[in-house]
Design brief:
The chain has about 725 residues and is α+β, with helices and mostly antiparallel strands. The protein has 26 helices and 18 strands. The radius of gyration is 34 Å and the shape is elongated. It comes from Bacteroides pyogenes JCM 6292.
Length: about 725
């Protein structure tokens, strides 16, 4: 029985893909997306502990072990999951041979791979322990087959490529008509070539030859015109389909919860955009070529059958041998392609670090070390390319030999048939023309098989995104209260499920309308997470958040956030003008509000120094900004929005004391009549708050006004005391 293999969709999906393969091996099909969520896959991948918890959830008994190769061969049952090369997970499903054992690996990135003991040792054994590696052992329990859960239910596919093709079916019919005409032209050409020899040359009729040649020219011209029209229609259709695909994809992304983006690498999302291009290439190139190849093979197959059935049989056998030979090398080529992709990524990263980190490289005198890192990667890339070239050469030599042998045999049979008067010389010439025309369609079948597999994987990745639940799957209440009071009741939150560390633990808090709340605490105490829960980016693991005694989850997240002006630590500056960055919530900027916003954020003097003023391009592709200038633009963005709720997360930590004093003075007036939540470390930012909450180890340990907390001489007092000592 061949071990089930499932390719990982993203760079972080190896753990869930391994678990899916093992479940399938034991006869249970589980949705990969369910396993991703059960494993709490994030940007940094997935932990072995979370894989173990997910495996237990679907009915396995698990045991994590640190063991050696000998114990793995003799003691433990397979399949099991291995921690591979310190950043990957694979399945070991079999060990064959005794004197020279072979390790059979199911790698979600590469496929089914067989390793010798040396390669296995290098990939599995921990670097800091010369004899042991990490494995997750899985044993099936009765619960595995008896228990039903949502992961066993086949996910409904809400997304289909045909939904995008159907509106353009009239173009598709036109393309089929064009292909039919092209095949008709191809059908006529061999007979014209035959007639030149059998009739024109044999009868020495120059007028007939000229007439046939004119007909060939006209047919060739018709082919060119037909090809131009067909390709134009195809481009027109696929361009529209591609735009619709990408537009719907981006629209879907904007409807997904922020938790989705926290679990995906940017590269994986960009890969989805590339997937659209791959699908478009498949539609415009491979699929059209396949249809054309099928028609061509049928037409010319009929002609060969009419000439001599033996020739058709030799052609079919030779073509099958050629395709089989090419396919023999496909797995190795795919494995090398994956290795090349991985090493090229490392190589590019080394090069980017060499260029972008030049200042630090020179400061620390590590020019040679960084250059050697790149050279080492380049050498590996070169070695992979050499191996790929060797395989390509062997593949091409064998393929050419089979193809030429087939053509020579057909030529021999045709020549013998001419000698035996079973075939005319013109028919033989027509056969040579047909053989030349049939080489391309055979190769197109191989190309279609390769690109079709890639396109299917791309489509699966897109389906995964489109089948995800929107942030608001049903219409929610858009009527946000005018004077909202926010209440947190026993709020607990964990990023990675019930077995992970609690980021917030039983937090209860009242935030009255038009009051200022300050949240302080050590780094990692849960301050920013608390803000994200209040903004509706995440749902509490336990407990609830209420707005005027109504659950926050009942309100539209978009409508709620439109009532909030937010400055986050990781606030983003777009590559656009200053005015567009600040007035991003308005399609038509209000200049009066804009001027007030830049005044409150103390940006007026800075803008006057710029040649283009507030039309200056900033961001990644524009004018460079200091950290303080970025924060002031983010503050101006929140002020311009002028919402009833303001949330500042370390919004002034990059400002100098003079700027901070001026801005906080102006903000104090702006805060009047608004609910304000501030996360900060500086005493000057929080001391005037109506209530100060101190978070420590995920819990609220103190709260009250500044003077009261100072008098208590608790954690808040120590934070302020340490800050003053550092300032001195």
């Amino acid at each position: 029985m061949k071990f089930p293999f499932y390719k990982q969709y993203d760079s972080t999906d190896c753990g869930p893909a391994c678990l899916k393969s093992i479940a399938e091996y034991y006869g249970k099909s589980i949705d990969l997306q369910y396993l991703r969520e059960a494993c709490y896959t994030g940007k940094d991948g997935v932990s072995l502990l979370n894989i173990s918890n997910a495996a237990q959830n679907i009915g396995f008994k698990t045991q994590m072990v640190k063991t050696g190769i000998d114990e793995l061969k003799k003691t433990f049952a397979l399949p099991c999951i291995l921690h591979w090369r310190k950043n990957h997970f694979v399945v070991l499903y079999n060990i064959s041979g005794s004197s020279k054992p072979k390790f059979h690996i199911c790698d979600p990135a590469q496929g089914l791979v067989i390793c010798n003991e040396d390669d296995f040792f290098k990939s599995w054994i921990c670097e800091y322990d010369s004899s042991h590696g990490i494995a997750l052992l899985l044993k099936k329990t009765d619960k595995f087959h008896n228990r039903k859960h949502e992961g066993c239910e086949k996910s409904t596919n809400k997304y289909s490529l045909f939904d995008y093709i159907l509106p353009y079916r009239k173009y598709f019919y036109q393309i089929i008509l064009g292909i039919t005409l092209a095949c008709l032209f191809n059908f006529i050409l061999p007979y014209l070539a035959q007639s030149i020899v059998d009739n024109g040359i044999k009868n020495q009729d120059i007028n007939f030859i000229i007439a046939v040649l004119i007909a060939q020219v006209m047919i060739s011209l018709g082919q060119v015109i037909n090809s131009l029209i067909t390709n134009w229609i195809l481009l027109h259709m696929t361009a529209r389909i591609s735009i619709s695909l990408i537009s719907d994809f981006l629209n879907k992304l904007t409807r997904l919860p922020i938790a989705f983006f926290d679990s995906k690498k940017t590269g994986d999302l960009l890969q989805r955009i590339n997937d659209h291009q791959r699908i478009q290439d498949f539609l415009t190139g491979s699929m059209l070529s396949l249809i054309m190849a099928i028609f061509t093979l049928i037409i010319y197959g009929i002609v060969m059958f009419k000439y001599d059935i033996k020739i058709l049989i030799i052609f079919i056998v030779g073509s099958i041998l050629y395709i089989t030979w090419i396919q023999l090398f496909m797995k190795r080529r795919k494995r090398l392609d994956y290795m090349r992709f991985q090493e090229a990524s490392v190589n590019q990263n080394s090069l980017l670090q060499l260029i972008n980190g030049m200042q630090e490289i020179k400061l620390n005198g590590c020019e040679k070390r960084k250059r050697w890192e790149w050279e080492k990667s380049q050498a590996k890339l070169y070695a992979i390319s050499i191996r790929g070239l060797s395989i390509t050469q062997i593949q091409e030599i064998g393929g050419t030999f089979i193809e030429q042998t087939k053509n020579i045999l057909i030529s021999f049979i045709a020549a013998k048939a001419v000698i035996d008067s079973h075939m005319t010389l013109g028919m033989m010439m027509a056969l040579q023309y047909i053989l030349g025309q049939l080489n391309a369609p055979i190769k197109q079948f191989i190309t279609f098989a390769e690109t079709g597999q890639d396109a299917k994987l791309s489509m699966d990745r897109l389906v995964e995104i489109h089948n995800k639940q929107d942030e608001e799957p049903v219409q929610k209440n858009n009527d946000i209260p005018c004077n909202p009071t926010i209440t947190l009741k026993d709020v607990t939150f964990q990023y990675e499920g019930l077995h992970s560390e609690k980021v917030l633990n039983k937090v209860s808090l009242d935030i009255p309308y038009a009051k200022t709340l300050a949240i302080v605490g050590m780094s990692g105490s849960g301050k920013t997470t608390l803000l994200k829960l209040i903004l509706g980016f995440y749902e509490p693991t336990d407990g609830g958040i209420f707005v005027n005694n109504r659950p926050l989850s009942e309100y539209s997240g978009k409508a709620w956030r439109m009532n909030c002006g937010v400055v986050m630590q990781e606030g983003y500056i777009f590559s656009d003008t200053i005015i567009n960055n600040i007035t991003i919530c308005d399609s038509t900027p209000d200049l009066q509000k804009f001027k007030k916003a830049i005044d409150v954020a103390n940006l007026t003097d800075f803008l006057e120094t710029l040649p283009l003023g507030y039309d200056t391009i900033i961001g990644h592709d524009g004018h460079g900004l200091s950290a303080g200038q970025k924060q002031r633009i983010l503050i101006a963005r929140a002020v311009y929005k002028d919402p009833p709720i303001l949330i500042f997360d370390e919004a002034t930590n990059a400002l100098d004391t003079n700027n901070e004093k001026e801005i906080m003075s102006k903000l104090t007036d702006f805060f009047q009549g608004k609910t304000v939540i501030i996360v900060a470390h500086r005493m000057s930012t929080v001391k005037n708050a109506d209530n100060i909450v101190v978070l420590n180890k995920s819990k609220i340990i103190e709260q009250g006004p500044h003077e009261q907390l100072i008098t208590q001489k608790g954690d808040y007092f120590n934070l302020i005391k340490n800050q003053l000592e550092i300032s001195i």
